[in-house]
Amino acid sequence: MSVTLRETNMKSIANNQLQFHNTNFSYMEMAGQKWLTAAEVGQALEYADDKAIHRIFNRHSDEFTQQMTGVVKMTTPGGMQDMRVFSLRGAHLVAMFARTTKAKEFRRWVLDILDREVAHSPIAKQFTDEELINLSYMWV
Question: What pTM was estimated for this model as a whole?
Fold first, then answer.
């Protein structure tokens, strides 16, 4: 069995767009994190609607933290509505419980996005490994 690695389009991230197959995530940023709607996560996982995502969340709500999910008011064609959103970590956890054919690939895709965010973080580039070792020796 051959595995095709899909490149994450970093230009789409710069334009507040993430794409997984035919799902274009129009993510929002809050508290320095990217947040995805339950509806888009459900679409990416190939569920018929976002009710499946809500069922997954409700069954396992004790495993989600406030940094993984929340409810926000969003303007929709039907007016203002409460919408459940997931951080990338939260979306990964949803996919851990999902039983669709896309769940495994979606989990890898989310982890790729998280890895790239960490790699591009100003904190990650603050110190080299050698500088961190020297700082720890100085602290001791």
Answer: 0.74
